[in-house]
Design brief:
single chain; 419 residues; alpha+beta; D-Maltodextrin-Binding Protein, domain 2; 2 domains; seven-stranded mixed β-sheet; two-stranded parallel ribbon; 18 helices; 49% helix; disordered N terminus
């Protein structure tokens, strides 16, 4: 009996001495703001503490480098396990290529479903299967420098129509102020104009008809007219000198340094502006205002329609199960509330909605909530190949290198080739 007990004790000791199974999760993000990056690192440390033996390694790539290198990274044996995503057509292409993990069973077994709205999950669902976890929503609006508007005598509250915007541009120029800052080198910031104009002109019906192949598709009057209106703005030369060579981070810093009065950008601008401005602060919230993209003559889209994103994270194919578990941890109420309270982003978690304290973000969150039609960014929604053409023609329109008709037809041709 004593021998049996001794063997049992020795056996238990051996079991206790066995090492905990080690797992390393490689998490690739694109966050430039040091405060948010520090928050990410803190979440990783807390997850490691709650899951002994698991290590979360943070990796960073700048936004444009991430987009350019991602396809190659996903084919590498050393690929990251968690990557940033905008959902939409790019996600569909990645799923089709077999490089993203299906996490449906993990989501369903973990009680994640009820934490978010069906529309939030929908952005990361392909053919009924879940491939990603949404983290925050966003809207693209015109941000403006209140001091520069006051100097030029421009009333932001009076900018309701496209003609109002053009008039404001001329008034700012008359006061010696650059009206708009844009990151033309990266092209996608300029697609916000063409896409927004199409949304105001045709609403959801025009986009749905184009993707369904009805009529002339993206070569139809709605999208040609969007180019014509964008050309009206571009002909005024409203952007800062050298805007076609300015990257998105460069331009955010220029806006934060007061080099221009307006910037059409998502509600992530204040964070990136602060990270890239000379004083690392940029325009303080009390000096920063915003207004919705204006309506256009004869537009069928509702003034409340919005353009924005549903950004989140994907688990790559073959990643350890701890990658999905980490995203479950990251999506909990505590972490979403921390981000909301600091004003870093608008959370998707229902339980964190009331935690947004930054007045500007509260306003944007309410605006998105009222939107009858929230359109995901065209360059993401239409897939990588078509999205690239959308960005190219938008930059070409801004530089007067292409006609509105040719721009619309190029997008349609790309859509036909991809589908």
């Amino acid at each position: 009996m004593k021998g049996a007990k001794l063997l049992a004790v020795v056996g238990l000791g051996l079991l206790l001495a066995l090492p905990v199974r080690a797992a390393t999760v490689h998490w690739l993000h694109i966050e430039q703001n040091p405060e948010i990056a520090a928050f990410y690192a803190d979440v990783a440390k807390r997850f490691e503490a709650a899951n002994p033996g698991t290590t979360v390694e943070l990796q960073f790539l700048e936004n444009e480098s991430f987009k350019k290198k991602l396809t190659t990274l996903l084919q590498s044996p050393d690929k990251p396990h968690i990557i940033y995503s905008w959902g939409g057509g790019v996600l569909r292409e990645q799923v089709k290529a077999g490089v993203i993990e299906d996490i449906t069973n993990t989501v369903d077994s973990g009680g994640w479903r009820d934490r978010l709205s069906p529309s939030a999950w929908g952005a990361y669902t392909v053919n009924g299967r879940v491939y990603g976890v949404p983290m925050h929503t966003s809207q693209v609006v015109f941000f403006y420098n209140k001091d520069l508007f006051a100097k030029a005598g421009v009333d932001a509250g009076a900018i309701k129509t496209w003609d109002d915007l053009l008039a404001a541009v001329k008034k700012l120029q008359g006061a010696g102020i650059t009206p708009i800052v844009a990151g033309g080198a990266d092209k996608w910031p300029l697609h916000f104009y063409w896409s927004h104009l199409a949304i105001r002109l045709g609403g959801k019906a025009a986009f749905d008809a184009a993707t369904a192949g009805q009529g002339k598709g993206f070569g139809s009057e709605t999208f040609v007219r969007a180019g014509e209106l964008f050309k009206q703005l571009a002909d005024l030369k409203p952007f800062q000198p050298g805007f076609l060579g300015a990257t998105w981070p460069n331009s955010a810093g220029q806006f934060g340094d007061g080099k221009g009065a307006m910037m059409l950008m998502g509600n992530w601008l204040p964070n990136v502006m602060a990270a890239n401005s000379a004083n690392k602060i940029g325009i303080p919230d009390e000096k920063l205002g915003w207004f919705a993209f204006p309506t256009v003559p004869g537009g069928k889209g509702a003034p409340e329609d919005t353009l924005g994103g549903m950004n989140g994270w994907l688990v790559t194919k073959g990643a350890p199960k701890e990658a999905a578990e980490f995203l479950r941890f990251f999506l909990d109420a505590q972490n979403q509330k921390i981000a909301a309270e600091h004003g870093w982003f608008i959370p998707v978690l229902k339980a964190a909605a009331d935690s947004v304290k930054r007045p500007m973000l509260q306003d944007v969150a309410r605006n998105v909530g009222r939107s009858p039609y929230h359109q995901l960014f065209y360059d993401q929604m239409l897939g990588p190949s078509v999205g690239a053409v959308v960005n190219d023609v938008s930059a070409d329109l801004a530089a007067a290198r292409i006609s509105p008709v040719d721009a619309a037809n190029k997008v349609q041709q790309a859509w036909q080739q991809a589908n």
